[in-house]
Structure formats: structure tokens, C-alpha cells
Amino acid sequence: MTSPTKAEGSGSAVALDPELASTSEVHEPKKLEGRSPGQLMWQRFRRDRTGMFCAGVVIFYFVVALCAPLLTAISGTNPYTLYGQDPTYADQPVLDDFGLPLGYFGGLSGEHWFGVEPQYGRDLFAMLMYGMRTSLFMALGVTSLVMLTGVIIGLIGGYFGGRTDYWIGRVTDFFLSFPQQLFFIAFMPVVTAFFVDPREETPTYFRAVAILIVLWVLGWMGMARLVRSTVLSLREREFVEAAKVSGASPWRIVRKEILPNVVSPILVQFTYQLPSTILTIAFLSFAGVGFVEPTPDWGRLFAVGARYAEQDPAFMFFPGVALVIFILCFNLLGDSVRDAFDPKSGR
């Protein structure tokens, strides 16, 4: 009769033991929280030191471009003043008798941090800051329009298929037949002569609008084909068929089921398209059909530097280094974004 009582007592002792009770709480299973594809992508991207560094460099460039007026105010210069010809600065000569910068490495000094331009004496630091501003924000606008147009056309052609896809494909082929840069070189003088009086100087805003429209109209085709090919493979998947059976409208299917699955190639393509657009704009200015005097632009800096490369090679150093670093970091950022979305393609 006593053994059951002891057993009951021992059992109650075990149940009331605080140490054992706390131990049982420690080993309770934790609830697992699900993470979205975006959270997984961001977690993988944060572990990529190269990607994080390049993202910081790219952001730094855009901040510098945005703050160009502030930076030139700090340096006490602007990109339009001819320091080598303005009588106001006659007591501070920056050019010699041959029109070349005085001093070391293109005229570096406390007043002109990156030196000055030959013949005119304009401050290179101010020209570079405003040139980055012009090129980066023009490229950002063009790339955004190209991406938006390509995504919309690719979604329509890929999802609806049939005759819609056929005619969109023929229009895409038609625009692809135009050589973009050669067409722009021939197009710009015609448009200028048509809208601007030959006796007047072409306004800068007109050139900016012309560059934006031509690069937009002739640049969306690659994005459209990429999105179309992705949508063609997605529209036959089970989750899309289930949405159709449930009675969802085509707009809802495209917006809720298909578009989230093409975000990855869109972002990756954007990181490759923007630096390519910057190089295109720089080439047009270098060829003399983009931005011209006195508008600061990356390509115009290289055009000026090419004329004085033998007498003053230092003039191209800072614009060249700045452009190479930006393009390299943006391309590496694109690789990191691609790897973050698709771990199987990791380096």
C-alpha cells in the first residue's frame, strides 16, 4: 500500500520541480517564420561584400551629381566661367602664353582642384560635377522609360500570344533594324533644322528632349524580348492555370501572378542598361550631336580632352577615372543582383 503513495509522491515531485519545468520550456520547438523571395534576395545580397561596396559607390555618384551646385559652391568655382579669359581673374592667371594650364598636372591648385581646361581655363572639377549630373540623370530617365516600355510590351505579347504576339514581334523587328547611334547622328541635324531657326542656337532642353526620345524609341526592344520570353514560359505554369480556372481577369493574372516572377530579370537588366546608356550619351556628345558648348557633359569632356591630349594629357585623367569606376561598379553590382536572385548562378 505504501509503494503507490511513494510513486504518486515522486511523480508529483517531478511535476513540481522548477528546474525540470524550466528545462521542458527550453526544449519547446520554436516557430519558423517564412521569408519572402525579396527578403531572401536581400539576405544573400548583404553577404556579398563586392555587391555592397559597389552599391555604395553607385549611390555616392548619384549623391555627388545631385549635390553638384553645393560642391562647386564649396570650391568657389562654376563650369561656365572662363578663368583664362575673363578680365575679372586677370590677377590670377591659369594659362600660359600658349593657352596651356600653368602649374603641375593640368593646373592643379587650391582654387582649381582638378586643374583647368586648355585655351579657356574653365574649372575641370566644376565641369566634371555638372557633367556627371547631366549624364547620370539623363541616363536614368532614358533607362526608366526604356524599361517601362519594354516590360509593358513584353507582358502583352508574351501573355496574349497569337496574332497580338506576332504583330508586336514584327514591330520589334522593324525598330531593331535601325542602327541606333548612326540614326541619331543623322536624325539630330534634321530635327534641329526643322524646329529651330538656323540663326538661333539650339536650346539645351531641346537637345535633352531629342536625346531622350530617340534613345527611348530605339532602346526598348531588348527589354521587351527578354520579358516576352520569360512570360511565355510562365503562362503555362500551374499557378497561372489555377488563376484562370478561378475566374481571375487577365489584368489580375498579369499583375499578381506573372509580374512578380519577372522582377528578377527586369532588375538585372536595369543594372546593365543604365551604364550602357551613359556610354551612349557620352558617345553622342563626343561625336558632336549630343550636348554641346557650354553644357557640361561627360562625353564633351572627352571630346575636349582628345583635342589637347598631346599638350595636356592630365585633362582626361579625372573624367576618365570617374567614368571607368562608375561603369565597373555598376556592372559588378549587376552581377551581384543576379547572383542574389539566382544563387545557382553565383560566382
Structure description:
- This protein has 347 residues and is mainly α.
- It is built from 15 helices and no strands.
- The model is unreliable at 1-17 and 19-26 (pLDDT under 50).
- Helix 6 (124-160) runs antiparallel to helix 7 (162-176) and helix 13 runs antiparallel to helix 15 (317-341).
- The N and C termini lie far apart (74 Å).
Defining key terms:
15 helices; 347 residues; mainly alpha; 67% helix
Tell me which oligomeric state these chains represent.
single chain
Radius of gyration based on Cα positions? 30 Å
Helix-strand sequence: HHHHHHHHHHHHHHH
Mean pLDDT: 82
Q: How far apart, in Å, are the first and last alpha carbons?
A: 74 Å
Q: Roughly what percent helix?
A: 55-70%
Largest sheet: none
Rough shape? elongated
Structural class by secondary-structure content: mainly alpha
Discrete helix count: 15
Write the layout of secondary structure elements.
Elements lengths: L1 H15 L1 H9 L10 H10 L2 H18 L1 H8 L48 H37 L1 H15 L3 H16 L8 H14 L3 H14 L3 H8 L4 H9 L4 H25 L10 H10 L9 H25 L6
Helix pairs in contact: 3-15, 4-6, 4-15, 5-6, 6-7, 6-9, 6-10, 6-13, 6-14, 8-9, 11-12, 13-14, 13-15
